[in-house]
Structure formats: C-alpha cells, structure tokens
Specification:
alpha+beta; 8-stranded antiparallel beta sheet; D-amino Acid Aminotransferase, Chain A, domain 2; 9-stranded mixed beta sheet; D-amino Acid Aminotransferase, Chain A, domain 1; 2 domains; binds 4'-deoxy-4'-aminopyridoxal-5'-phosphate
C-alpha cells in the first residue's frame, strides 16, 4: 500500500506518477493557496465505488471561494476525471486526492494573477489511524492547540495552508503518545480532530459540535447523522465543553480517512468501558455495509466506476 500509482490526472491529461512535478516558484508552496479533497473508493462486488462523489466535488468547488480562486473545471468534468483516474490506475479500492493550487506567475501574497492548476492523485491506502483502530479504538488527547477562531481562516473550507493547524495538533498528540488530538475551539468548546469530526454518546443521545465550533462540515459526519437518525437515535449539534468528553459513554471520530474510529481513552481516562461501544459498533456496521455495496444504497452514496 505504497503512496504511489501509475498515473496522475494533471490539468486534464494523464501524466506518469514520477513526471507530475511543479516549479519551486508556485504560489501555493509559499503561501498555502491550495484546496484539496479526500475521497474513498471502496471495493464492491460490482467493482470500485466512489463514496459520496458528488458531495466531495461540491465541497472541492466551494472551498476556494474565500481565496477567490476559481477551479477551471466543472462539477461534471471533475466527477468524470476522478472515475477515469481510478479506472486508468486499475484500483479496486483507493484514496482519492483532488488538489487545486495557485501555480507560478509572480510571487506576492496576492496570488490572483497565478494560474490555477488541478491534479487528481489516487493510491491504495488502508486504515488511517492504524490497523486495529476501527475495532479496538484509539487513544486521544485534548490538544493544547486551538482550532482557528471565527474570522481568521475558513474552518469550513479545505484550504491547504489551514492544515498547518492540523499538523500542530497531530504532531503534539503523537509526541504525547496518542494516536490523534482533539482540538477545542477558541472559546474552549470541543471542535474536532486534526482531520476528523467527533461525536459523543451521552444518556443515549449523540452529540456533535455544530458548524460554529470551527469545524469542517464533514461528509462522514453527515453520513453518521443520517444513519443514526434512521436507526432511531436522537442527534444534537451543540456546543460541547471539554469536560463532557470525560463523562461520555462512547466517543468516536468520523472522516473519510478515519471512517468511524472509536476513541477508548482520552488524556489517560477511559471512555465508557474503555473499548468500542455498542452504538459505535452499530453505526460502523451500517456504514461499512453501505460502503461495501452489501446494504441497499438508500441515499445514493455510491458511484460505481465501471457503470
Ligand atoms: N475535519 C477536518 C479538519 C478534516 O480535514 C476532515 C477530513 N476531510 C474532516 C473533519 C472529516 O471530513 P470528511 O468526513 O468529509 O472526510
């Protein structure tokens, strides 16, 4: 499962992996002016299927708006390009990374004169938070780094430069012996992980921070809210003070890379019984049955590559 495949889609053409390079003068390298997506294609009996393709491409086209950067491809073109890249690379399942960035023209902070370059990379990638994370759960810690304050950056957009904050969070967590960090927002309420949204179960009800807690509007978060409500659970989007993490019955992360990952220990304190909880397991079962094409795709979340 190397970080590699045969071809990269580069501004509409397929380029061999090793030839997909840029100049050191590209604006994005200096100022973080890029946007990206993380998407998964799952293996099914009908071949690879991309999970929530439409919503990921919609977010990809929406993310650069505060940067005044326009991606020179349409929703339909990008959806097709993603399917074509998976087919060209012959993947059965993969991670998909669309990236758009300001290229090279001149070097000043205002990069609006620079061309916008677009690439799509795919490669085969397993469990993001480790091989046992999905069943055994992970250890996390509350980060000393806060998420970006409202009116500073654009938490709801996947802008490259903003992921310096995510790097601070995840590096600190690993240095402290955790798999992932949980960041608070500027007011001290729970926000999210470095690349995951977070849910907690308390009194039989699921809670997750609202969009105003400096989170990314995660697509997996939306899946979990949809599935949980369909399964009869009440889901509330509300501000969560840090201390409620320690008294929760279950906690889990959601994200395209992390999927649904239980958190069994936070800051050395056990969450619930200290292992994956029953509601987390039930949600995982429903989620993976859909991604594998084994359960009815009642919300139209799968796009088959070979259809
Ligand atoms: N928060 C952040 C900061 C992220 O980078 C991600 C990954 N895209 C998520 C949450 C989860 O979002 P999604 O479920 O759409 O992958």
């Amino acid at each position: 499962m190397a970080f590699r495949s045969d071809y990269i889609w580069f501004n509409g053409e397929f380029v061999p992996w090793d030839d997909a390079t840029v100049h050191v003068g590209v604006h994005a390298l200096h100022y973080g002016s890029s946007v990206f997506e993380g998407i998964r294609a799952y293996s099914t009996s009908k071949g690879p299927a991309v999970f929530r393709l439409k919503e990921h491409v919609q977010r990809f086209l929406r993310s650069p708006r505060p940067l005044q950067m326009k991606i020179p491809f349409s929703q339909e073109q990008l959806e097709q390009a993603i399917l074509d890249t998976i087919a060209k690379n012959g993947h059965d399942s993969c991670y998909i990374r669309p990236l758009a960035f300001r290229g090279m023209e001149r070097l000043g902070v205002d990069g609006r004169a620079c061309p916008v370059e677009v690439v799509i990379m795919t490669w085969e990638w397993g469990q993001y938070l480790g091989p046992e994370a999905i069943t055994e759960g992970v250890e996390a810690g509350v980060s000393s780094w806060r998420r970006m304050a409202p009116g500073t950056l654009a938490a709801n957009c996947k802008i490259g430069g903003q992921y310096v904050n995510s790097q601070f969070i995840t590096m600190e967590a690993k240095d402290r012996g955790f798999v992932e960090g949980i960041a608070l927002d500027v007011n001290g309420f729970v926000s999210e992980g470095s690349g995951e949204n977070i849910f907690l179960l308390s009194g039989g009800r699921l809670h997750t921070p609202p969009l105003c807690a400096s989170i990314l509007d995660g697509i997996t978060r939306d899946c979990v809210i949809t599935l949980a409500r369909d399964m009869g659970y009440e889901v509330v989007e509300d501000m969560i003070p840090r201390e409620r993490l320690y008294s929760a019955d279950e906690v889990f992360f959601t994200g395209t890379a992390a999927e649904i990952t239980p958190v069994r220990l936070i800051d050395g304190l056990t969450v619930g019984a200290g292992r994956r909880g029953p509601v987390t397991a039930e949600l995982q079962d429903r989620f993976f049955a859909i991604t594998k094409g084994e359960a009815p795709d009642q919300w139209g979340w799968l796009t088959y590559v070979n259809e």
